[in-house]
Structures are given as C-alpha cells and as structure tokens.
UniProtKB/TrEMBL annotation:
Its cofactor is pyridoxal 5'-phosphate. It comes from the Bacteria. Residues 53-402 form the Aminotransferase class I/classII large domain. This is 7-keto-8-aminopelargonate synthetase. GO terms for molecular function: pyridoxal phosphate binding; transferase activity.
Amino acid sequence: MPLDKIGKWVGEKLVQLKEKGILKGKELVITEIKKSQGTKSPRYLIEGEGKKEFIKMNSNSYLGMSLKKEVIEAEKEAAEEFGVGPGAVRFIYGTFKPHLELEKKLARFHQKEAGMLFSSAYAAVCGILSPLISSETIVISDTLNHNSIINAIKLSKPKDKKIYIHLNMDDLETKIKECRGNCRRVIIVTDGVFSMRGDHSDFKELVNLAKKYHPEFKEGVFTIADDSHGVGAFGKTGRGTSEVSGENDVDILVSTLGKALGVNGGYVVTNAKIVEYLRETAPFYIYSNPITPPEANAALKALEILNSQKGRKMLSYLKEMTIYFKKGLTDLGYETIKGEHPIVAVMIRDTQKTIKLVNYLKEKGILAVGLKYPIVPQGDECIRFQISADHTKDDLDDVLKTLREYKNK
C-alpha cells in the first residue's frame, strides 16, 4: 500500500512527540451543555464520563457570548435569510451584507478607518504578514509571541528577524538600532495579551519607539499587534490592550471573533489603504471562504452587546471575579502572575507536578490547561485558568476548595 512506508515514519514521529511531552493525545468531546442554574455556571458533559458534570476553567469565551440567547437568535435569523454557508470566497460572490456591516462596525469600535474579516485570527496573522514583508524588511518579535506570529514570520521569509526579551522595551530598542543601515522597513510585531500567562504589552512604549526610529528607515517602522485575548475581555469597554495601556496608535490590530465575542473568525483593523492592499494580496483572505453570513450576524449582535451598558457591566463583573479568584489563590499560597486579565496562570514550575494537578482537577470535575515544558520554558510550567463572566463566586469557591484540598494532601 502507498502509505505503508510513510506510516512507519509517522509512527516514529508520534513516539517522539510523546517522549518530548508535546503530544496532544485524544481530544475530549463535549456531548452536552447544561445551561446556568442558580449559583452554577454552565456545566459540560464529556464523552466517556457518563453524567459527570464539568466546570470549564479553560474557555476563551470570556463573556459567555456563545450561549447568549440574543446571539444565537441573530445567527438563526441570518441562516434563514442567507443560508448556512457563503458558497464561495469573497471575490467570487462570497461577500454578504453581514460581512460588510461587521467590518465597518469593528473598524468603528477600534477607531480605525477600515476592517477586514478572515476565517480565523490565525489566518489573519499569517495572511497579512506575508504581503507586508519584503526582501528588505526586518521583523522584530517578542519572545513569547503566539505560534501564529512565529509561523507567519517563517512563511514570509523576511531579510532578518530579531527576537526581543519578553516585554523588555530596552531590548526592543537595542534590536531596532541593530537594524539601522541593514533594511528599508522594520515591523515590530507582538501579542497584546499573552495567551500563556495573561500579561500584556505596553502599547504606549511600543508605539513611541516605532515613532522615534521611523525617520531612520526609508520605508519606516510600523507596529502590528494580535490582541485576540484582549479585545472583549480587557479594559472598561472591552477594547483590550489598547485601552488598558492608553494607546490606540498601533498601526495594524488583529483580533478574533472566537474568544470574548463567542462566535468564529478573525479580523484586521487599520487604515483604508492597507485594507485595500491586503484584500488584493493576502492569500488566506483571497483563497479561503469567509466566515458564514450567520456567524457574521451573530458577531454583530455580540459586538452590539459588548459596546453597551450591559457589556460594560459584564466586563466589570469579569474583572471582579478575576481579582476574587487571584486573591483566593494567593491566600492559599499559590504563585500567580501580576495582572488583572482573566487568564490566571498558577505557576507550578515542574512538569510532573503540573500533570498531576491537572489530572486531580479533572477527577474533581474541573477542566484546566496545564502548560508544560517544552511548550513553556523549563521552570515556567503552569496551570492556566480562564475566568468567564458566566462563572459565579460559588463556582470559583468550589475550584479554590479543590486546590486547597490538593495542597493539604
């Protein structure tokens, strides 16, 4: 059979992944969601676990938008009007009214000139970097940037890439200086909120450095940020790292519809000329179907909720619960990373201890993510909890109680 020989090689690769500790293994399958009842947030049933209920402490749906009745109804209405799929890529009559309306409202939300939808934030990052990187471009990237940024740079083949120490603006400035005389264009790219730890960039310092050295390069210095974990989860009005750091001049902002907004897809907001250029050149946009019209309509409703008094109340509650959970962890003697983002990383600093605690939590009906070496540097192993506006104090108290019991063991 044609796949016999390659099958042997694939098997060896899988063994290597397991030995390195990075094999994902069998995926958990959610078979049912039980809606919130009383002081309980939604509970999840998992294939093979019978009727045992789990609380998700590892969901990106920071505001619980995916289960909101208004959002579900908006998707249903658009499905009845436009069907369930786009039927084509954007330039071959795959563009529908909800797509254009969503792009305009996202741009307005972020106070940018124009917006552009992608099938995912990962596709957005990979789609825009390649057309913006020339053979005379040097890219400077934070050490802990997301895998999408790392792979986008690899695919784009810039003249050079430089990696600066995580959140270290002095090192970033040193790297910019090293580029002088060696390229025509510099791109500084970073995450807004870093998904492993919940800490965030200081956009003000980042933008100031770009502006400072912009005149020294023929094609300038500009900034790109992926704030997928920030938008809708961070800041008083949910505008993410831009709002928290008091700086909205990042040149190109990427984010997602699939986390706090609870739907699916990614997007870019920037000036109109750049969007016009990217529609003509970004392969992940041109040759991929867009999100469906119903998804776009659901995202419009989620954005409307976020950008309202109701949304601000949800964000305030989310912040309150995050602070409450972090204090509970600190009181128990667990180490966390400073910050108010709902990603709460509990530093375990040992791979085997991380695995044991994640397994213990699962036994007790709590789903959390263990980040182990080599996914994170040795000594930075942690458990990532993610707070949602769906969580109640009773939920968090149950988790803290379980963590107390484990510590006492």
